[in-house]
Structures are given as C-alpha cells and as structure tokens.
Amino acid sequence: MNDRPTPQVPPGSPAGRELLSALREALNLPYPAEDEDRAPYLVLRSKRASLAVEAIGRILTDRESDPLDQLAAATALRLQIADLPADTYASCGLGS
Asked: Which residues, at least 6 apart from 43, have a Cβ–Cβ distance to it below 8 Å?
C-alpha cells in the first residue's frame, strides 16, 4: 500500500488489534434517542460502515500487506470517522 498515514500506536499494541479497534470505533455509535433521530443515525452508521468495509477490503486485497499497512489503515479510518462525528442526531447515550 502506498501513501501510508503516520500510525499513532500505543506501545505494545499489535497492528491487528489497532485495526480492530478502529473498526469498532467506526461502527460503535450511540443509539438514537427518539424515532425522528433514527434516520440520521442510520445514514451516519451506513457511511461509517462503508469506510470500515473499505479499510478491510484494502488489507484483504493486498496480498503483500504487512503490519504497517494495518496500522496505516487503522489511522486512516480514524481520521475519516473523525469527519463523521455522532452529533447529527440526539442519542440516548448507549453504544450500539
């Protein structure tokens, strides 16, 4: 993989764990508080899920990917979901 973002990794954390953690961050959103909050929640969750699937796909399709690629994918995913915060709907505070 080219153009790797600089990974930010806690000491001793394996690359696979970081990627899984980033995937969980992308998919774990607080539930909508009311019925009218359901549509924006689903749109946001769909966008974040698409980013997660793309990150997984990049690793799986590159047979030469290595732990640095996994770390780069985790960092890129975290940067992307930072642009999609869970503030477009009222939430009940419980994670999904």
From this structure: 88
**For 25-79, how does the pLDDT look when each residue is reduced to its tens digit (9 = 90+)?**
999 999 999 999 999 999 999 999 999 999 999 999 999 999 999 999 999 999 9
Q: Which of 92, 80, 83 is nearest to 37 (CA)?
A: 92
CA nearest neighbour of 65 among 28, 29, 16: 16
Q: What are phi and psi of 82, to 5 degrees?
A: -65, -25
Instruction: Give per-residue pLDDT as tens, 70-92.
Output: 999 999 999 999 999 999 999 98
Q: What does the alpha-carbon distance between residue 34 and residue 58 come to, in Å, rounded to a whole number?
A: 36
Question: What contacts 85, CB < 8 A, 6 or more positions away?
Answer: none
Where on the phi/psi map is residue 3: left (φ > 0), alpha (ψ -120 to 50), or beta?
left
